[in-house]
Each structure stands twice: as C-alpha cells, then as structure tokens.
Amino acid sequence: MNCGAYHGTSLMVKFGYYGREVLENVEHPAAGYRKIFETVEELNEPLPTEVTGVLPSWLSGSLLRMGPGLFEVGAEPFHHLFDGQALIHKFDLRSGHVTYHRRFIRSDTYVRAMTEKRVVITEFGTAAYPDPCKNIFSRFFTYFQGIEVTDNCLVNIYPIGEDFYAVTETNFITKVDPDSLETLKKVDLCDYLSVNGVTAHPHTDADGSVYNIGNCFGKNMSLAYNIVKIPPPQKDGSDPLKRSEVVVQLPSSERFKPSYVHSFGMTENHFVFVEQPVKINLLKFLSSWSLRGTNYMDCFESNEYIGTWFHLVTREPAAYLDSHKFRTSGFNVFHHINAYEDQGFVVVDLCTWKGCDFVYNYLYLANMRAEWEQVKESAMTAPQPEVRRYRRDGLAGARGPLLWTPTG
Ligand SMILES: [Fe+2]
C-alpha cells in the first residue's frame, strides 16, 4: 500500500471503512457465530481432518493458535470474550495431510478453577469471589490477600529462544511443549524485567531477539513504558529470559494512568509507540479491585481530551526522541498492520477505531451471543474501524520537531 502523493499535508485517505451502510447489509454468517463462544472438550490425541483441495507436498510444519475454550466453571459463567480458559490448537501439516489437536493450558487459573469448581482468579471481565463455604473471617482475609493476577494465557503463542510460550497481557507467560501441547512451566516476567506486564504481540527480529512493551513504574513512582528485549537462543544453551533487558523507557502522558497497550511498531531503526486515550486508572485498580471484586475491565477509562500520542524511539543507540512526539485526535488502536522505513520516512499502518469509547466494552459474551440483528445494531453503535497510515518524514538530518503526518 504505497500512496505517497501527500507528503507534508494533513490529508488522510481511508483504505477501508466498514461504516453503518456496509454493516447493515451483512448477512447472518452461515456457520453459526454463537458456536465459537461455546465450551469445547480437549482431545486425547490428534484427529485426522478432511482436506478440501490440495496442499503442496513441500508444506510441512505445525500451526499453533490460542483462544478461549471454556466459558464457564460449574455454574459460574465468564462474562467477557477474553475470559475463557486458554485452549491451544495445533494443525499439523505433513505430506498433504493435516491433523488437529487441542489441549487446555494447565495454568494456575485453570487448575484451581477445575479443582474448586468455581472462578478462583479474576479474569479480564469476570471477578472472582471468595469461596462462599468459608466463614466470614476467612472471607475477610481473602479480600485483603492482595491481587491475584491471572495467568490465563489465551491470547497468543510465540517462541522465545528454542521454547514456545502461551501468553496473555499480564506478567505471566506459560511454557508449552509444541509437540504434545502439554503445559511445562509458568514464568513470571517480573523475575527478569521491570514491567507490570507486556503485550501479547511482540516483534521477533531476524536474529531471534524478541522485543515487547509494557507499562512500569518510572521516576518518582510515575508510570512509564519500557521497551524490553529477550535475546536470541544462547550458544551455551542457557535460558534467554535470564538475559532479558530494558532497552529504553518512554514517559506516560498521565502520571498515574498509563494507556492500554495492545501492540507497537518496530522498523529497521525505530520503535513506534502509539499512546491511545484508553487509560488504566491505576488508583482505581489498586484501591477497589482487591476490596470489592472489581475486574480488569472496571479499571479502564477513556480520556476524551488527551488525544492520541505518537512516540518515536531509535534502536541504535536506544533513545527516546522527545522532540518527535506528535498528538492527534483520539482513537482506539489495538493492532499495528505494519511499520517500516521508506526513503527516510517511518511509516506505520494501523487498525484504528474512531473515538475514545473503549472497543472492548462491546465484547461481552452476552452481546456476542445475542440475536444477529442485535449483534449488528450493537456493532453500529460501537466505534467504527478505519485503517490509517501515518508517516514521519525528514528523519535524515532532521532538526527540531517535525510532524507525524497522516497520509493516504
Ligand atoms: Fe491482538
């Protein structure tokens, strides 16, 4: 997508816009959309599949995917799309044939839920409550035990060194065996890095280094963001996680309210961080959650006045370019489509959602399982998606602040 005719202007061209008039004409999906929000059983062994068409004989390997697979525990339902318990899927491709396998990740969250037959650890949009069988005194102390952070790694899976880790967006990642799909080990990233959590969408460099971003406590207990690096496989066979490091720190626009970060951009020479107006209210998080059974979703808020900030960082040497900060109108952003450098420009393509209203507010399971007409109506009142390209020009020899320019 190279539409480079608008250098230095404020013109933005929409690559794709799925507006109200388009959505109204979307037909009911034939396969039954509710099915994907139903609990499934794991498999004891891989199943053969029927292949439609022909797979190239040279295509060989495994596709691993994560997702929610258990949407209630006993009589207690999970409420949000991101709450279901992590299920790992594997499609194994060999000599034109495919087998399919799936297993639940034995996270602490899952194992304890299965053991106690209730939601034990608070999920993204579902609060856990103390065991009702306990007496009032033990329940009181349960409230004050502090926050138990979920390790329900349903979002993504990626390699670190020679190992594979299932991940969510907290500080916990889970090592899995990509052959048997068995759960091997829970890892706390806080043992290695100064972050409160990291995104589920890291970047892997050509040498195998893994880069990610997460919020952290910076100077004077202000919130900040750390870009971190986990090095490639080590020659001595040691765990690369032990050599993890913070590459650079970026400031937060609000001292106690870091933005929700779902992904970031990495080019050959730069990191791009888009700080959106969806905020995590840390004070609310700390004061209310452990007392009243608040969940993660309750701690988000939208700042309608702060807009969206673009931040730029050089990779070598790692340095935050304060003078290159740029503010634009507020939008939600979750996924970066691409980021790259082109003739001295840093270009970043984003899936944006217009406005400050948090898109995750529309992803409660009750909404997703509604009648199709209701699902469409809800989608039309939600922020509308828009693919945008932003480009930062004049990097070579630039002096002083220059603008991030949305371009088409
Ligand atoms: Fe994502």
How would you explain this protein's 3D organization?
The chain contains six helices and 25 strands. The chain is globular, with a radius of gyration of 22 Å. Strands 15, 16, 19, 20 and 21 form a five-stranded antiparallel beta sheet that branches. A four-stranded antiparallel beta sheet has the order 1-6-5-2, with no helix packed on it. The chain has a four-stranded antiparallel beta sheet with strand order 7-8-9-10, with no helix packed on it. The longest helix has 11 residues, at about 280-290. The chain is mainly beta. The protein folds into two domains: about 1-30 and about 255-408, no CATH class; about 30-190, no CATH class. Helix content is about 10%, strand content about 35%. Residues about 1-20, about 135-145 and about 395-400 have low confidence and may be disordered. The structure holds fe (ii) ion. Fe (ii) ion binds near residues 201, 262, 334 and 335. The site of fe (ii) ion has 4 residues, from strand 22.
